[in-house]
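User:
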Amino acid sequence: MTLSVYMFIQVLLLVAFCMYKKRLHIFEIFFIWMTVWIITHSVTTILIVNFEVLTMTGDMKDFWTHFLKRLLLYPLLIIVFFDLYVRMRSALEKIAVLVVNTCIMSCVEFTFIHLHVIQAKNYSVTHSLLEWSFTVFLSYLLWKWYRSHRLMRR
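Assistant: Predicted structure:
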């Protein structure tokens, strides 16, 4: 049931994402997508599993839900917030967008814990905020580097 509800919501989010006009270049979107994918799926997953903060449930449907949220949902949310970041004018608004992005990502993760897709062992709000701050900040730095060196935009 969780997988089907997740897939329905994901399709709605992807359609909405494809329909609105973005300020990011298509190559930026792909770069951010792959960066977030590598960070969330490789780096943070290894750290979280090794420190036994989160564990997977034994159900195969939950595994696929977890895999798809790391492949599709997390990069999509970060790309939407980075696109919103580009639209903001003041530095305070831009910082607020990045902070809200971190908080939303933590809320999404706690939602999946509540839905029993993943199980929390030693997990807390602090762990979640640290993980997503690291992910968003590293993605942001790499995106800004890519934007200035590869796309020659500011």
